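We now fix the convention by which a protein and its fold are recorded. Here is one such record, which you should read through line by line:

>
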Amino acid sequence: MTAPDGAALEEILRRGVVEIIVESELAERLQEGKPLRLKMGFDPSAPDLHMGHAVGLRKLRQLQELGHKVVVIVGDWTAQIGDPSGQSVMRPMLTAEQVQRNAETYLAQFSKVVDLDRTEIRMQSDWFGPFTLTDVVGLTSRFTVAQFLARDDFAQRFKANRPIAITEFLYPLLQAYDSVAIESDVEFGGTDQKFNLLVGRDLQEKMGQRPQQCFLVPLIVGTDGVQKMSSSLGNYIGIDEPPGDMYGKVMSLPDKVTLTYMENLTDTPDHEMEEIRRGVDEGSVNPMEVKKRLARELVTQFHDGKAALAAERRFESTVQRREAPDDMDAFKASRLRGRVADFLVDAKLAASSGEAKRLINQNAVHKNGETITSNIDAAAALAIGDVVRVGRRRYVRVV
C-alpha cells in the first residue's frame, strides 16, 4: 500500500476529474496509506465499452497501482427490470442470458485498462436476489419523492407531464444499496450520475456506514463533437475496435476536442499539454499532427505500438493520399447488375438498404475513385477488379 506524494495526489484529484465530494476527505483518506474500496458499477444493457468509459477506468487503474481495491458491480439485477437512461426513456428489460453475455464482454474489455486479477467482481443479484418486499419497503422509507424529483431528468419529465415509472424511482435506491452491500469507500461515475452517487452516500450514513466519497469524471463528447459519447447514438470509439477503425475515428474528431481527449485519455505530461495548447493557439503546431499523436497513443494503449504504426500508415495512404490499400477486403460478387444499395449491403459496406441509399445520396460511395451518384445506373458498370469505397476508410475489391 503506497500513499501518494504531493505531485501524485494532485494528479489524482485534478486531472480527468470534474468534482469530488468531499475532496478534502478523500485526500486525507488517500494519505492514510490504508486500502480503499473503489466502486464502479456497470449496467450491462449493451456489450461494448468505449472511450467515455475509459476516462473513469483510467482513474481506477491509477489508484489500483497504489494498492487500493477496485470493486466492479455488474448490474445484472437492475438490467433485468429496466432503468432510466440519459435520453429520459426507459431502457429495455433484458433476460438473464442477455445480461450474462453482455457482462462477459464488458469484463473482457474492462481488463484492457484495469488489472482484472486485482479486481473484485460482484454481481448485483448476490444481494438483491434474496430481497423481500419488506426489504424494498424499508429501503424506500428512507427517502422522499421530493428528494428524487430534484434529479434533473426526473424534474424535467415531471414538469412536462411525461410519465415516470415507479421502477425508475427505485433504481437510484438500488444503486445506492450497492454501496452499502460492498461497503464502498469511493464511488466513481460520470457527472450524469451525481445524484445517484449522493444517494449512495446518504444511504450509507443512514445505515451506519462511513459515507463514500463521490468521484465524478467528465463526460467526453463523441465523434460528432456535440453530444456525449454513446453507443446508442453511434458517435463512440470502442476500446475493442480494430486498430485502423480506432485510429480513423480519432482522426475524424473535431479539432476542438483533441486536447480534451488527450488530457483525459492519455498520460501526456501536463507541461507538454500546455506547450501543445500554446502552440496550437499561436499557430506553430499543426492540429493534424496533434491528432495523429493522440490516435497513435490510443491505439498503442488498447492494442500495441506496432498496430498503431500500421494504422497510421494506412490512414496516411488511404485518407491523406487517397490510395487504395493493398490489404483491402475482397468481395466475391454473385451479382454485378442491379442496385448499388443491394451491392453495398451484400458486401457489408452498409447495414441496410436504407443506410446504403443515404450513403449514395451523400456522395459517400465511390468506384475506382469516381463518385457513384445513382442507385441503378452505376451498378451495371461494376466489374471484376473494381474497387468500391464507402466514406474514407472502407474498401472492397470485387472478385
Notes: The chain is about 45% helix and 10% strand. The CA atoms of residues 44 and 202 lie 25 Å apart. Confidence is low (pLDDT under 50) at residues 83-90.
